Amino acid sequence: MATSRALVMVVFMLTVAFHSSVVNATFPKSMYFNWGAHHSSILGKGDDLRLVLDQTSGSGIQSKRAFLFGSLEMLIKLVPGNSAGTVTAYYLSSTGAKHDEIDFEFLGNSTGEPYTVHTNIFTQGQGNREQQFQLWFDPTADYHNYTIHWNPNAVVWYVDSIPIRVFRNYQSEGIGYPNQQGMRVYSSLWNADNWATRGGLVKIDWTAAPFEAYYRRFRARACKWNGPVSISQCTIPTRAQCLETPPKYMGHRRARSEVVTLPDDISFDSDHELVLFTIMKIFCIRIRANRQSTALSMERKMRYITELERKVQTLQTEATYLSAKLTLYRKTKSLLSSTISDSERRAHAITALYKSRNYPTYRGTTTTPIEFGEATIEHYVHNQ
Ligand SMILES: *[C@@H]1O[C@H](CO)[C@@H](O)[C@H](O)[C@H]1NC(C)=O
Ligand SMILES: *[C@@H]1O[C@H](CO)[C@@H](O)[C@H](O)[C@H]1NC(C)=O
């Protein structure tokens, strides 16, 4: 099961990788104040933030973008001292009557008493799924990592990388699951002394105000919500998405090193789901392999063509050389053949001279034809 779970996680990581981008922007880039901006502030280079609650109001921020699936990570240092009656919330939420919501709420307490971590999840407007936890450290002494990990199969609440709660997708059993609506990321600090501490018994001590919570290093490794089209885009890798996969996800060996481990109690609910995800993985790997081999064979073909072109050029040069040689041969041949016919004519002429025995005199002497010399023969040939 461990191997197949790893396989499935690879697929999920691939899935999210296609569309997600790490929003590691600073607070001003990725978020804005939706409440109490007058007394809250962004600090330093924009990676730090302070929310304030006093008698005038609480305060809050929200992300500019909505997401569907991903890892939403925030470092928080909670209100110290007497924080009874205050609530610091870090949550995802969509809007509308049938909204989805995934919550971390930190319920303050009197000095020295432990904070309570209150978690909840709403699907299509339905909540009532609270679970509470006590932390194993003082959350006011330093920043701690609160991460909501949300994929098509499960929602996991992490505190310092320790999963404290898992909400699995049991849609097949008729239980709602947040997978149809993009959610924005919110955080707020507010007065909840009608219920937060000991069920509302302990009220806010305003003499301890202003109450301040500190935030740092918001990260959203998440699939951006662009409307309903994102429902399939953020879930299933299509052919195009496979092709867009960055090189680091190429091939088996690299993919295996991208395996992310989830806590042991996350399992996939049905063999069907597992098979589906495995098939998608194989599908993607095949497309990638095909693309690679196409690229490879293209390169081979190009190299072959270049080779052929070079050969053709060599042959052309050779052909030019040969045809020049041929022309030369032809010229030589015609020269030779005219020389031969010339010689034949001379032989004829000599034979004719012999036959006529009419030896001409040359410079007053009777001579043999061999001694006639050029001029006489030429004269004779032309007069035949
Ligand atoms: C916060 O926790 C998440 C979930 O375990 C982890 O992926 C992330 O790397 C952590 N971030 C920091 C800064 O430790
Ligand atoms: C506050 O401290 C009391 C006493 O330890 C504890 O019972 C309670 O759960 C704590 N948290 C809240 C939110 O009341």
TrEMBL record:
<keyword id="KW-0378">Hydrolase</keyword>
<dbReference type="InterPro" id="IPR008263">
    <property type="entry name" value="GH16_AS"/>
</dbReference>
<dbReference type="GO" id="GO:0003700">
    <property type="term" value="F:DNA-binding transcription factor activity"/>
</dbReference>
<feature type="signal peptide">
    <location>
        <begin position="1"/>
        <end position="25"/>
    </location>
</feature>
<dbReference type="InterPro" id="IPR013320">
    <property type="entry name" value="ConA-like_dom_sf"/>
</dbReference>
<dbReference type="Pfam" id="PF00722">
    <property type="entry name" value="Glyco_hydro_16"/>
</dbReference>
<keyword id="KW-0326">Glycosidase</keyword>
<dbReference type="GO" id="GO:0005634">
    <property type="term" value="C:nucleus"/>
</dbReference>
<dbReference type="InterPro" id="IPR046347">
    <property type="entry name" value="bZIP_sf"/>
</dbReference>
<feature type="domain" description="GH16">
    <location>
        <begin position="20"/>
        <end position="215"/>
    </location>
</feature>
<keyword id="KW-0175">Coiled coil</keyword>
<feature type="coiled-coil region">
    <location>
        <begin position="298"/>
        <end position="325"/>
    </location>
</feature>
<dbReference type="InterPro" id="IPR044759">
    <property type="entry name" value="bZIP_RF2"/>
</dbReference>
<dbReference type="InterPro" id="IPR000757">
    <property type="entry name" value="Beta-glucanase-like"/>
</dbReference>
<keyword id="KW-0732">Signal</keyword>
<protein>
    <submittedName>
        <fullName>Beta-glucanase</fullName>
    </submittedName>
</protein>
<dbReference type="GO" id="GO:0005975">
    <property type="term" value="P:carbohydrate metabolic process"/>
</dbReference>
<dbReference type="InterPro" id="IPR044791">
    <property type="entry name" value="Beta-glucanase/XTH"/>
</dbReference>
<dbReference type="GO" id="GO:0004553">
    <property type="term" value="F:hydrolase activity, hydrolyzing O-glycosyl compounds"/>
</dbReference>
